[in-house]
Amino acid sequence: MAIRPEVNEEVRHALSKVPSVTLIFWIMKICATTLGETAGDLLSMTLKIGYAASSGILITLFLVTLVGQVGAKKFHPALYWTVILSTSTAGTTMSDYMDRTLRLGYATGSLILVSCLAVVLVVWRRAEGTLSVDAIRTRRAELFYWVAILFSNTLGTALGDFLADSSGLGFVGGAVLVGSLIALTALAFFFTKINRVVLFWTAFVLTRPFGATFGDLMTKPVAKGGLNLGTVGSSAVLAVLLVGLIFITLRTRKPEAIATSNCG
Fold first, then answer.
1. How many domains does the chain have?
2. Most buried in the list 87, 101, 170, 181, measured by CB within 10 Å?
3. Is there a domain that residue 203 lies in?
C-alpha cells in the first residue's frame, strides 16, 4: 500500500535527529547563540577564568554533549539545543582567544575560521554527496554537521565583534546590518531559485553575529550603547526564553509522534 506524502514526511522527520527548519527553529537558534555570547563572556570575563581556560572547559562540554547527541536513537529537543548552546559558548571564547589573546584581530581570525568552515563543508560534500540537513541519516554526516556548526558559530562571533567594535557601526548598527542580511536571505528563499542548502548555511552563519551583537547590546552599559543587563542578567533572561521555547517544541511534537506511530 502506498504511503501518503504527508505521512511519509512525518516518518522522515521522526527518523531525523535534527529539527525541521521552521520559523521557531531560527528563533531558537538566535536565542541560543545570543545566550552563548553572554554565557561565554560570563565565564571568561565576569568570572575572570580567561579565554584559554574557558575555551578548554566549553570544548569539553561540547564533546560531552556531542557524545550524548550522536549516541541518541532519536531527536531530543533539549539535548539538541544543549549541543547548539555548547557550540555557541565555546565559539565565543575560542574566537575571543584567537582575536584578543593571540592578537590575530577580528579580520584575520574571521579569515582563518571561514577557511576552516569551507574545508569542513567541502569534505562533507564529497563524503556524503550533499550538505542538506534533511539528509543527515548517518553518524558520519551528523559529525560533519556538528563540526560545521562549531566553526560557523565561532566565525559568527568574530564577525559580530568586528561589526560591533571595529566597523564603527556599534552594537545596534551591527545588529541592524546583520538582521537586514538575514531578511534578504529569507526573501531569497521565498522568491528566488538559489540553492536551498546555500541559503541555509548562509542564514546559519549570519544568525551567530546577530546573536553576538545582540548579546553585546544586552550586556554592555548604557554609556556604550547597551542595555546594561550584564552577563548574568542577560544570560538568565535568555536561558528562561530558550527553555520556554524548548517546552513549546516538546508539546507541539506530540501530535506528530502520535500520527507517525499510527501510520505503522
1. 1
2. 87
3. yes
pLDDT for position 250: 81
List all residues 6 or more positions away from 239 whose beta carbon is below 8 Å from its beta carbon: 35
Kindly give, in sequence order, each residue whose CB lies less than 8 Å from that of residue 128, ignoring residues fewer than 6 positions away: 135, 138, 140, 141, 144
pLDDT for the residue numbered 15: 53
- Which residues have a Cβ under 8 Å from the Cβ of 30 and sit 6 or more positions away? 207, 210, 211, 214
Q: Would you call 16 exposed, middle or buried from its count of C-beta atoms within 10 A (0-12, 13-18, 19+)?
A: middle
Domain that holds residue 58: 18-254
Q: Helices (DSSP H) in 42-104: which residue ranges?
A: 51-71, 77-96
In degrees and rounded to multiples of 5, residue 225 shows phi and psi of 90, 10
Residue 56's pLDDT is 92
Instruction: Examine residue 119 and state whether it is found in any structural domain, yes or no.
Output: yes
Angle between helices 23-41 and 139-161 (to 10 degrees): 60
Q: Is residue 141 included in any domain, yes or no? A: yes
Is 51 part of a structural domain of the chain? Answer: yes
